[in-house]
Structures are given as structure tokens and as C-alpha cells.
């Protein structure tokens, strides 16, 4: 009877472990949605979210693997599992109740397109964690130090597969003091309200409707706009109206914009690297960034200026 119970408990461990590893992998690519959602939920900020998101994914990996391998001294990994389940429940509740969210990618969801399956999986997590906590025995490796070696090898994996760099936390933007060239902008789109464009503080972003990195920058600006004192944003798109609709639908964002299909003049103003973002104050360009330099520190500075 005890052998049967042992097999039953191991099957529960196997199922929970595999689900945890899968959920961690799902949140690792793309990790930006995980980071921005933690910020939008006020669980983190622009400087801590890149680190916290990767640590949480690492905990998914190590907890899942240790449950499968039956390495659970003092049932500590079952307790970590319970903490992960609590975070999942918070995220799913937030997904249901908050209608104005920017980031629609639910890190607590196994199947984002089917909330019923997600809730069912979390019920499996809760039930399985309770059964293991109540009925399973403590277990460990014969050589106890091996588990620490595994932890040191596995928890850093998210930082290796989807790295965050020191420059992501430093504002390396180029500083300028030049007026926006209205004549060049007019060649792109004659319907732009130029007086409004150069009034006050504004970010002008040059995006292509087919550029995935531009979507990431748009999400950053949209999240920052909901939680901080962020400058107003105006986007000049290289593309047509259909492409703009796809861009806004995919990124779940919405900004004032104009379009152009004049690629020669567009790249003359924006530069060759997209996205290209300029910070204007009373029509004077103060700073410029590309997709790589428009980082966490820049967003933080713009939100707290």
C-alpha cells in the first residue's frame, strides 16, 4: 500500500514539476512582457523588474526540477511552489478585474487564450501542493551539497538565455540642443499639427509598423504613461494605416501618430536604426535614443523628471 502511495505522490511531483518548468520557459520568451506586467501591477519598478522576473523564472526551473528529482529537504520546495501559486492567483485575478491593462500576457497563466484551463491548472497546483505537503516525506540527496551545486547552475539560467546587461541600467543617451527640422517633417506628412508637436515636453518616436522592437518600445512608453509623470508621445510610422492598426492591436497601445511611406526622408530624420526616439522640450531636441539605449534607466528618469 505504501509503495502505491509512493508512486501516486511521485506522479503528482512529476506533473507539478513539468508544469512549473513549462511556465518558467513560457515567461522567459519574451521576458519583456513579464517585466512590464510586474511594473504595471506595482510589484516592481524599472530597475528591479529585470532582476526579479529572472529570479522568479529561475525559481520555477529549480522548484520544478527538484520536485521531479524528489529533492525536498524540509519540504522547502513545496513551500516555494505554494508561493508561486499565490503569485499566479494574484496575476489571474488582476487579469480578470483590471480592464485598462497594457500588458495582456498573463505570467500566471498556462494557456493565455483559455482562462478556464488556466484556473483548472492552478487548482491542480493547489491540490497537488496540499497533498505533497501533508503526505510526502522529506527527501534529500545522499551527498547533500549536490543540491546547492544544482541550484547555482539552474537559477542563473534565465540570466544566461535572456541576459540583462549593466548598460541597461545606465542612461547612455546622446545629448543635443537642436531644433526639430520642421521642413523635413513636413515632407513626411503635411497633416501633422506642428505647433502642437513642438509645444511643451514630448517624445517623438520613429517606428516601422513591422518592427517588433518598436512594439517593445511602445509597450514601455504605454506602461510608463500609466504609472508615472511621463511625457506625451507622438509616433511617426513608416507604413500604412492597416499596418498601424496591426501595430496597436498587437502591442495593445494607442498614441497620437502620423504615417508616411517616404522611406528616404523618413530615415534621413530618424537615422538608420529603429526604433528611434527623441525627447523634445519646446521644439528643441534634448536627447535621442535607439531601441537598445531606450532602457530601464531612461524610462525611470523620464517618469520622475
Characterise this structure.
The protein has 305 residues and is an alpha/beta fold. It has two domains: 2-161, no CATH class; 172-303, 3-Layer(aba) Sandwich (Glutaredoxin), CATH 3.40.30. 56% of the residues lie in helices and 13% in strands. Strands 1-6-5-2-3-4 form a six-stranded mixed beta sheet, with helices on both faces. The protein is elongated, with a radius of gyration of 24 Å. The protein starts with a helix and ends with a helix.
Which key features would you list for this structure?
single chain, 305 residues, alpha/beta, Glutaredoxin, 2 domains, 13 helices, 6 strands, 13% strand
Average of the residue pLDDT scores:
88
What coarse outline follows from CA principal-axis ratios? Answer: elongated
* Structure summary, number of beta strands: 6
The SSE string, one letter per element, is: HHHHHHHEHHEHEHEHEEH
The number of domains is 2
Q: What's the number of helices? A: 13
Distance between the termini: 67 Å
Q: Structural class, judged by helices and strands?
A: alpha/beta
Portion of residues within helices:
55-70%
Q: What ranges have pLDDT less than 50 throughout 5 or more consecutive residues?
A: none
Strand order of the largest sheet: 1-6-5-2-3-4
Strand content is: 5-15%
Quick one: biggest sheet? 6 strands, mixed
Instruction: Give the radius of gyration.
Output: 24 Å
Provide a compact summary of the structure.
The chain is an alpha/beta fold.
Topology (SSEs and partners):
Blueprint lengths: L1 H27 L2 H10 L8 H21 L6 H22 L17 H21 L9 H10 L2 H5 L12 E6 L2 H7 L5 H4 L3 E8 L3 H16 L4 E7 L2 H11 L4 E5 L2 H8 L5 E6 L2 E7 L5 H8 L2
Helix pairs in contact: 1-3, 1-5, 2-3, 2-10, 3-4, 4-5, 10-11
Amino acid at each position: 500500500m505504501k509503495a502505491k502511495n509512493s508512486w501516486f505522490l511521485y506522479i503528482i511531483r512529476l506533473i507539478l514539476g513539468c508544469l512549473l518548468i513549462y511556465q518558467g520557459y513560457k515567461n522567459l520568451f519574451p521576458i519583456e512582457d513579464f517585466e512590464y506586467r510586474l511594473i504595471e501591477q506595482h510589484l516592481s519598478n524599472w530597475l528591479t523588474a529585470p532582476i526579479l522576473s529572472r529570479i522568479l523564472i529561475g525559481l520555477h526551473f529549480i522548484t520544478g526540477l527538484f520536485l521531479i528529482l524528489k529533492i525536498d529537504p524540509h519540504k522547502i520546495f513545496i513551500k516555494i511552489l505554494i508561493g508561486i501559486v499565490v503569485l499566479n492567483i494574484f496575476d489571474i485575478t488582476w487579469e480578470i478585474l483590471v480592464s485598462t491593462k497594457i500588458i495582456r500576457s498573463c505570467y500566471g497563466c498556462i494557456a493565455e487564450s483559455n482562462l478556464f484551463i488556466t484556473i483548472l491548472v492552478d487548482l491542480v497546483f493547489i491540490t497537488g501542493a496540499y497533498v505533497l505537503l501533508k503526505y510526502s516525506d522529506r527527501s534529500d540527496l545522499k551527498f547533500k551539497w549536490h543540491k546547492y551545486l544544482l541550484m547555482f547552475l539552474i537559477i542563473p539560467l534565465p540570466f544566461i538565455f535572456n541576459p540583462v546587461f549593466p548598460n541597461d541600467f545606465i542612461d547612455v543617451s546622446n545629448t543635443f540642443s537642436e531644433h526639430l527640422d520642421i521642413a523635413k517633417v513636413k515632407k513626411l506628412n503635411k497633416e501633422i499639427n506642428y505647433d502642437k508637436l513642438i509645444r511643451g515636453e514630448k517624445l517623438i518616436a520613429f517606428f516601422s509598423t513591422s518592427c517588433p522592437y518598436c512594439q517593445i518600445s511602445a509597450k514601455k512608453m504605454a506602461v510608463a504613461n500609466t504609472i508615472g509623470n511621463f511625457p506625451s508621445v507622438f509616433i511617426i510610422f513608416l507604413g500604412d494605416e492597416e499596418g498601424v492598426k496591426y501595430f496597436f492591436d498587437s502591442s495593445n497601445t494607442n498614441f497620437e501618430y502620423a504615417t508616411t511611406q517616404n522611406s528616404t526622408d523618413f530615415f534621413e530624420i530618424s537615422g538608420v536604426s529603429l526604433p528611434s526616439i527623441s525627447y523634445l522640450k519646446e521644439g528643441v531636441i534634448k536627447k535621442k535614443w535607439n531601441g537598445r539605449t531606450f532602457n530601464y534607466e531612461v524610462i525611470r528618469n523620464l517618469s520622475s523628471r
